[in-house]
Design brief:
heterodimer; A: Rossmann fold; nine-stranded mixed β-sheet; 11 helices; B: 3 domains; 19 helices
């Protein structure tokens, strides 16, 4: 079974995210692009850019070269279009402007390498992906990120491939457990009631922190982000409060401060998607034991986990052992070693 | 038209400009530089009103077409830089050609919409096409809004590209075959680029690969070695050729871009012209939308020095009242050169009415329709105001100081025909002197060329040579009247009073409404009856 078999005819926008750098995400992207070629599909690619950074920092981070074939559609910076070593047909100059310049949608007229850096916001990624589908792509691949720097998240795509690898830790067990934690976060679900979800969507669009009570009363709190704001939140929480909706990041500190002041209450912490929660495995287990509930607005549909047994730090795992260990933990997810023989 | 700083602030010219919404880059530039017509440009002003009337009429009939047209304008990128580069004989990039092509399509699409609208405007607003330029950027006649250095541009390019395509295919097939062979021999995964990574533990395999001359060593880490499948001589030959062809292609496309840029430069005048015309059209449409949005009426131009407003609305106050579910009561006033006095108690809307006159005159002279049932005027040379800001911390002398400054400025312009608005004349100083000064100022301006409006508390400033308007003021109030609904009891309308009339004593009633201590109210009424009218007389 190949990655493409999980994707084709099921999804039109997918993302690939790496647990860290050097987990082999680029290999995965190139691999999918290669597999797509045999399927006679028109593929499009973009990546989640980073916002609010100065030019030199961005150029210093590796936006990898991706090998694309003739007919591939992509959205990238104007700068990279000019640097590309292939001939490109310009399809559109989008309204999306990043600190690095404008985002352009183009089509490769030859095979070759190009650097891809797309919009940095959810809205930008969504619009650009939709446009590329309109230009005839059957599949859009979003090169994603799991960090605080990007505001866009893989949750806006229909399915996500997670890349992990030896680079996370010298201890294989730790790599597996770190990945397990990430997948656990990815498994957070929506609130079951559609009505409440609608309220949550509005609350998140309105930014800041919002409380929803059991009668579906909504109260927007006068704070910009959740950081250091637990005092204000605690003051407003009543016995009827059920959901605390955070439009930005949610940290362990905030959760425990709210829990300590409101122990015993039936509270559900809601974030836009799992990439907005920043808690360790140990903290998560503790919170869940205490009965704290977590929900998301946008679920992440995990399609597969790719593994890379090699670390550029100079060590590696036995590929078979690594894969077996992963398979033992992740029974329902496909584990795929991109460096392995088919 | 001259405006002092205080005028721009107090009548809030920025608000007016912010409500004129343009979309094209040149339209934005024109809007930024938009200033009122001069008093001697009566003909231009009239033409502008007529154009706007035409467009307003068309908008009402073809709402959707105008939305479409403005969406087209919105898509136009700022091309100034590209124009500049063409002018300087620079070679444009593929992206720049694409932008110009998009612009041309915007022109074509706009023309299609405009043809249906039949606006019948002057040359300055008319868009037209040039086949030459269209063919240049769409040599194959695809009519697709994308751009690429097409093979059609040169036979040479087409040949090079065909060769590249052929060779690449050949190379790929050959390499693929080689990879397949290696893969079969070793049953290992080899990446598309030919990379093969082996664990160092696997010494046997490593030995075998090292002895296999189809591989060469690429890199290694602590634990593994990466080899790459070597291309054979045949493939190397192809790769070399491909590299050469790629270089040729690059050279040729650059040559083509150079040529195209040269051809494009010949069309620069057309491009700039269309860019400007879209800007003019954009601004004109924006002004028409403003006029429609605020339910404006077409100003009537006269030769007499006058400003006559029937049911004028101060749009900013009106908007904020609307937000609070209040209703703005339109005000009518008929002003001629000389002095007009507005009297009435505090909170009677005198200041708003003064500002309204200034605002409406400004709007009219920008070439917009005016938020009034009727607006008749002769365009002014200046609008000067001295309208104190209640939020201003600087009170007393500095308010008075600012007033004196404004009046000094107006005196310089007294031979000109303009609008001078003074709120609460001399209220920042002691009543006796204030009254004397007011009298003198009124005497000075009442024979002037301009229209001067002064609001005041003082009784006795009214004189037979000047117009006198009174705020109707409070209606009947009783014990149950409630300050929160002050608007309900207040009639902001101005009535022109011909016979001498005392300034209405609404201040005490308003204080009553606002819940001021009853004994104070009583005592004030007593003083009033005892004849404290001395003040100001």
């Amino acid at each position: 079974m190949e990655l493409i078999d999980l994707i084709k005819n099921k999804y039109s926008i997918i993302s690939v995210v790496g647990m860290e750098k050097n987990v082999g995400k680029t290999v995965v992207l190139n691999e999918i692009l290669e597999q797509v070629e045999y399927e006679n599909m028109v593929v499009a690619i973009t990546s989640i850019g980073r916002d609010g950074e100065s030019k030199d920092i961005i150029t210093a981070t590796d936006k990898p070269l991706i090998y694309i074939t003739e007919g591939t559609i992509f959205a990238t910076l104007e700068l990279y279009i000019e640097q590309a070593d292939i001939e490109i047909e310009i399809l559109e100059i989008t309204d999306r402007v990043t600190s690095m310049g404008r985002i352009i949608i183009g089509k490769a007229k030859q095979d070759g390498y190009i650097q891809i850096a797309g919009p940095s916001s959810n809205k930008g990624i969504k619009t650009v992906s939709k446009k590329m589908l309109d230009y005839g792509a059957n599949l859009v691949i979003v090169d994603g990120a799991l960090n605080r720097v990007s505001s866009a998240s893989p949750a806006i795509t229909e399915a996500t491939i997670l890349s992990t690898g030896a680079v996370l830790d010298r201890d294989m067990k730790k790599v597996v457990s770190k990945t397990y934690h990430q997948v656990h976060l990815f498994s957070f679900k929506k609130v079951e009631s559609e009505n409440i979800n609608e309220l949550i969507r509005k609350a998140i669009d309105n930014r800041g922190v919002t409380l929803i009570d059991k009668e579906l009363g909504v109260k927007k709190l006068d704070i910009k982000t959740a950081l250091n704001s637990s005092k204000i939140i605690n003051k407003e929480i009543s016995d009827d409060t059920r959901y605390i909706v955070f439009s930005g990041s949610l940290t362990a500190k905030v959760i425990s401060e709210i829990y300590q002041a409101n122990g015993g209450k039936d509270l559900n912490f809601v974030v836009r998607d799992a990439t907005k929660i920043f808690i360790s495995e140990r903290e998560l287990n503790l919170f869940l034991k205490l009965g704290i509930k977590f929900s998301v607005l946008d679920e992440i549909n995990l399609l597969a986990i790719t593994i890379n047994p090699y670390s550029p730090m100079g060590y590696s795992f036995n590929a078979k052992e690594f894969k077996d260990e992963m398979n033992r933990y992740f029974k329902n997810v496909m584990i795929y070693n991109v460096l392995e023989s088919r | 038209m001259k405006l002092n700083e205080s005028t721009i602030k107090t009548i809030d010219c920025d608000f007016v400009h912010s409500k004129i919404k343009v979309f094209s880059p040149y339209g934005k530039k024109l809007k930024k530089d938009l200033i009122p017509f001069n008093s001697n440009q009566v003909k231009n002003l009239e033409d502008e009103y007529n154009r706007i009337e035409k467009i307003m009429f068309s908008i009402n009939k073809n709402k959707y077409s105008f939305i479409e047209l403005r969406n087209k304008f919105k898509d136009i990128k700022n091309l100034e830089n590209t124009f500049k580069r063409l002018e300087d004989d620079k070679t444009l990039t593929v992206t720049e050609f694409f932008e110009i092509k998009c612009f041309i399509y915007t022109i074509i699409d706009s023309i299609k919409i405009l043809d249906k609208l039949k606006l019948d405007l002057e040359e300055k607003y008319i868009l037209y096409r040039t086949e030459e330029l269209e063919n240049l950027l769409d040599p194959d006649g695809y009519e697709i809004k994308s751009f690429y250095i097409y093979d059609t541009y040169s036979k040479e390019l087409s040949n090079i590209r065909n060769n590249i395509k052929e060779l690449s295919m050949k190379k790929q097939l050959k390499y693929k075959k080689m990879l397949e062979e290696v893969k079969n021999d070793y049953s290992l995964k080899i990446l598309r680029n030919g990379d093969l990574t082996v664990d160092k533990d696997n010494t046997l395999l490593i030995e075998a690969i090292k002895n296999d001359d189809r591989f060469y060593y690429k890199s290694e880490t602590f634990m593994n070695i990466t080899f790459i499948v070597k291309a054979n001589e045949d493939l190397d030959e192809i790769s070399k050729k491909l590299e050469e062809l790629k270089l040729l292609e690059e050279k040729e496309t650059e040559e083509i871009r150079k040529k195209l840029s040269k051809e494009m430069k010949k069309q620069l005048d057309y491009l700039i012209n269309m860019n400007n015309r879209i800007g003019y059209l954009d601004l004109l449409i924006a002004k028409s939308y403003f006029s429609l949005g605020f339910k404006g009426s077409k100003p009537v131009l006269t030769d007499d020095k006058k400003i006559k407003i029937i049911d004028g609305r101060h749009i900013i106050v009106e908007e904020s009242l609307k937000k609070n579910d209040g209703k703005y009561i339109p005000v009518s006033v008929d002003l001629t050169n000389g002095v007009s006095l507005i009297t009435g108690a505090n909170m009677g809307g005198k200041t708003v009415s003064l500002k309204m006159v200034g605002l409406l005159t400004y709007i009219a002279q920008l070439g917009l329709f005016v938020p009034a049932k009727k607006f008749e005027f002769k365009p002014v040379d200046f609008i000067m105001t001295s309208i104190g800001d209640y939020q201003d911390i600087k009170q007393g002398l500095s308010t008075f100081g600012a007033e004196v400054e404004a009046i000094k400025e107006a005196i310089i312009l007294n031979d000109k025909y303009g609008l001078l608005l003074i709120d609460e004349l001399a209220s920042g100083t002691n009543p006796k002197e204030g009254f004397a000064l007011s009298k003198a100022i009124i005497d000075y301006f009442k024979t002037g060329n301009g229209i001067t409006i002064i609001s005041t508390h003082f009784d006795g400033l009214v004189d037979k040579d000047i117009k006198h308007f009174q705020v109707k003021g409070l209606k009947e109030i009783d014990e149950n009247s409630d300050f929160k609904n002050m608007e309900k009891y207040m009639d902001y309308n101005l009535i022109e009073v011909s016979t001498f009339k005392e300034v209405p004593k609404d201040a005490i009633n308003i204080s009553k409404l606002m819940g001021l201590n009853k004994s104070i109210i009583k005592s004030a009424e007593n003083y009033l009856n005892k004849g404290s009218e001395k003040i100001g007389k």
